[in-house]
Amino acid sequence: MSAKRSIMRIQLDTAAKDRLETICKRRGMTQIALMSRLVNWFSYQDDYVQTAVLATLSDESMASLAKSLLKKIMSSSKASGG
Asked: Phi/psi at 47 (nearest 5 deg)?
């Protein structure tokens, strides 16, 4: 039995659509496959990463968030021996 799937639409300006098509050609993927992977990846990210990707903060807050993310990555890297 196959997993249930949903079809969603996105709205892009012409330049973004052109860049998406270029990426898909370079990666040998369909637009649906690429967007599905991106949305799936994004949905698993924590609030820090989602906020950074969506750029929903002021420049000052984004700088603070970036510093926090860097500290988090560095402590995670040290904990794993990297």
From this structure: -60, -35
